Structure prediction request, 272 residues.
Amino acid sequence: MPAPRRLGAARRCRSSHAKPLHCNGIARSGEGQAASPMRHPLQQAEYVLTAANDEQLPPPGPPEIAFAGRSNAGKSSAINALAHRTRLAFASKTPGRTQQINFFRLRSGALLADLPGYGYAAVPRELKRHWQQFLARYLATRQSLVGLVLVVDARHGLADMDRTLLAGYLPSGRPVLLLATKMDKLTSSAQRLAHAAVTQAIAEAFPAHVRNVSVIPFSATREIGRETAEATIALWLEGDGNAIVAEVRARPPAKEKAPRSRGVTRGPKRPV
Ligand code: GDP
Prediction:
């Protein structure tokens, strides 16, 4: 499946404020400005609370999007990139918060649920089972959840826990935006292969739900895929989850900022 094109980029770039905000990278100058909540839907997100069990979840109400991923996949970096911040999601890495769901309020009033990273070996087995069940229940039953952003290290592809999580979530019929991240670490041909491999893995594992999953190349450091991810999340929050999946799939390949080619594929800093 081809990579989706940036959605809405042309429309956005006609704005007189568009260049520094939308066409030229990080929106440093835009953080304090009043913009439509859906333009950069995660911008100005604020930490709200941490939930360790069902009772501590905020009452379902405003639309909610969840971010999930294996530990070290790049979830915090992706959230920070989409929030146009450097340390927002790293609050979730403080001791005591790593195995819980951290909630952030977006300026539209929607909630972002940062789910605990999975696959981290140092967690005691009992605790691991507790949060895996908590996570599975949350994803399968949370009424206000409108979409799941799954962050996968493009170099490693889908992990078993990613499949388990998707198997619990996809029957709900809600959409998934799969960020195949750290693309900047790959040469452009390796990027294409990695994107195709993740797409293929989804098609093989979830043939009945493949239409609900959009796989996009992403990099938190090089701005690959950010506009597509923002546009997708904005449409979910506007109640258009099904339409975006269809639209993303129908579009030709992206031409986002090309990563600097280094000629080599670098490995991870530590094994994942
Ligand atoms: P998390 O455990 O899933 O929240 O992962 P982090 O966001 O903490 O990222 C794990 C490591 O990967 C950190 O060293 C990040 O700097 C690095 N990282 C995350 N995303 C990217 C990316 O898109 N490109 C590069 N080059 N490194 C990344």
The chain is about 30% helix and 15% strand. The first strand starts at residue 46 and ends at 51.
